[in-house]
UniProtKB/TrEMBL annotation:
Coiled coil: none annotated. GO terms for molecular function: FAD binding; kynurenine 3-monooxygenase activity. InterPro entries: FAD-bd, FAD/NAD-bd_sf. It catalyses: L-kynurenine + NADPH + O2 + H(+) = 3-hydroxy-L-kynurenine + NADP(+) + H2O. This is 4404_t:CDS:1. Its cofactor is FAD. SUPFAM superfamilies: FAD/NAD(P)-binding domain. One of its GO terms (biological process) is kynurenine metabolic process. Keywords: FAD, Flavoprotein, Membrane, Mitochondrion, Monooxygenase, NADP, Oxidoreductase, Pyridine nucleotide biosynthesis, Transmembrane, Transmembrane helix. GO terms for cellular component: mitochondrial outer membrane. It holds the Pfam family FAD_binding_3.
Length: 470
């Protein structure tokens, strides 16, 4: 057993309380900034290498290369720092609506709203680097890459963390543990051992594969976008769909969502090209036959999972946020956005409960004990409030996202689909552009419950509207 050296930035005699954040993904890194700004000593543990070290980049790109950032995420980034949101938006591409590509090669633009509403295409790796840089600017933050949380003794406030390179373990003490360690969270698993957690997990029948539309050259020989960059492009087809989001280098990242059996049925380059010629005739020349042959067979086929659980906390000791608390299928593009919003709401609730990270001065042992007890009680109440408040909204969005599974797009093309499309259009708007939509979303979810039962499945609201409009 070895000990981690805290001497560089944070020492054990600090007068501030310590939060140990597990997982330096998007949500964990943002929460490090929030806690640091409010004066906590922050230890951030990440099992992977530092993304900013060039050779480690590919391991982070196991998931979508770019993401749609929307109202919930923007609000949380803005509160983290006006400079931060300015930099993020300066590196993002605004998407003011969907561009539907029909089977006949026609294009239909559907604006997200009449007030200029848009979502922003952001580069996952760049955003994460920015958050990590920002977190490291605080003197009270220390990030440990290649450190894996193994287990937790929450009652004792002790974590067992392994240094992956050295194969050694350390005991880490913390006043609070924040689990931001993603879909397959170790913190959540440890939490399940001490609370009666309700837990629900569902894999959907679709997988996804990423492809790329490279920039094209114009008459002057300069690179430009091969399609309109200010739309999220969607090719809705039967039980599958292709989408494309713009990148700063003028390329698009495409994601093909399709049932596993259909992926399995494409065995050869010939099968692949025939499939694209049949369903995505206009996309094929944009991607390029050589590129698609390479990317399709090389790139992983990722599974899509939905996880809901409750409660998110145990006493005053630990809370889980982001995908660790709620993984959602990506058809609303809300996973990261909701994770960012978790951070904003958690911190708001801590402030409402006057959770002060300053430790009491050691003067009188009795007074200190009373103060410590009060701190612990207040923190427990705050975490309990967080679970109660957050669970409603997050569950509603997880349910909406999974209900929007693709297979129902055919069902939506029946005459009834006009109403459905309008209805789901409203849902989409609440989920994507609402900043705290728990009431509205739950209300609308209740209203659409009958339709979900009726159709079994239905698809992306955008796709629904698209099919209806064709
Ligand atoms: C195809 C696809 C498209 C998506 N598109 C969008 C979109 O457009 N908009 C959107 O908002 N969301 C989108 N999402 C969802 C989004 O990717 C996730 O919600 C987001 O990445 C969650 O961030 P996180 O920090 O909670 O978890 P993660 O990003 O998974 O980070 C968790 C971190 O914890 C680390 N970790 C795990 N276990 C341990 C351990 N034991 N010890 C230490 N560290 C550990 C991991 O290495 C990782 O770095 C999409 C997802 C997919 C799959």
């Amino acid at each position: 057993m070895s000990t981690i050296d805290f001497s560089q930035k944070i020492n054990s005699t600090s007068t501030r309380r310590r939060v140990a954040i597990i997982g330096a993904g998007l949500v964990g890194s943002l929460s490090a900034i929030y806690f640091a700004k409010r004066g906590w000593d922050v230890l951030l543990f990440e099992l992977r290498k530092d993304l900013r070290v060039p050779e480690s980049t590919p391991s982070y790109l196991h998931r979508s290369i770019n993401l749609a950032l929307s109202a919930r995420g923007i609000s949380a980034l803005r509160i983290a720092g006006s400079n931060l949101i300015d930099v993020v938006l300066s590196q993002a591409t605004p998407m003011k609506g969907r561009m539907i590509h029909t089977g006949e090669g026609k294009l239909h633009s559907q604006l997200y709203g009449t007030f200029g509403e848009c979502t922003y295409s952001v580069d996952r790796a760049k955003l994460l680097m920015l958050l990590l840089d920002n977190a490291e600017e605080f003197k009270n933050v220390k990030i440990y890459f290649e450190h894996r949380l193994k287990r937790c003794d929450f009652d004792a406030g002790v974590l067992d963390v392994e240094n992956i390179n050295e194969g050694t373990s350390s005991k880490i003490e913390a006043d609070l543990v924040v689990g931001a360690d993603g879909t397959y969270s170790t913190v959540r698993t440890q939490l399940m051992r001490v609370v009666r957690m309700n837990y629900q997990q569902e894999f959907i029948s679709h997988a996804y594969c990423e492809l790329r539309i490279p920039p094209k050259r114009n008459e002057k020989g300069e690179f430009e976008f091969a399609m309109d960059p200010h739309h999220l492009h969607i090719w809705p087809r039967h039980t599958f769909m292709l989408i494309a989001l713009p990148n700063l280098d003028k390329s698009f990242t495409c994601t093909l969502f399709m049932p596993y059996e259909q992926f399995d049925a494409i065995k050869t380059e010939g099968d692949l090209i025939a499939f694209f010629q049949l369903y995505y005739q206009d996309a094929l020349p944009l991607i390029g036959e050589q590129n698609i042959k390479k990317d399709y067979f090389l790139n992983p086929k990722g599974s899509l999972i939905s996880i809901k659980c409750s409660p998110y906390h145990y006493k005053d000791r630990v809370v889980i946020i982001g995908d660790a608390a709620h993984s959602m299928v990506p058809f609303f593009g809300q996973g990261m956005n909701c994770g960012f919003q978790d951070v904003e709401i958690l911190y708001e609730i801590l402030e409402q409960h006057n959770i002060n990270p300053e430790k009491p001065q050691i003067n009188n042992i009795n007074t200190d004990n009373t103060k410590e007890m009060k701190f612990r009680k207040d923190l427990e109440r705050a975490l309990d409030t967080y679970t109660q408040f957050r669970h409603i909204d997050v569950t509603a969005i997880c349910d909406l996202a999974i209900a929007k599974e693709i297979r129902g797009m055919v069902a939506l093309a029946v005459p009834e689909s006009h109403n459905s499309a309008v209805h789901y259009g409203k849902l989409f708007h609440y989920a994507v552009f609402g900043s705290s939509a728990e009431m509205e979303t739950t209300k609308f979810l209740g209203e659409c419950g009958r339709r979900i039962d009726h159709f079994g499945y239905f698809c992306d609201v955008g796709v629904g509207i698209a099919v209806w409009q064709l």
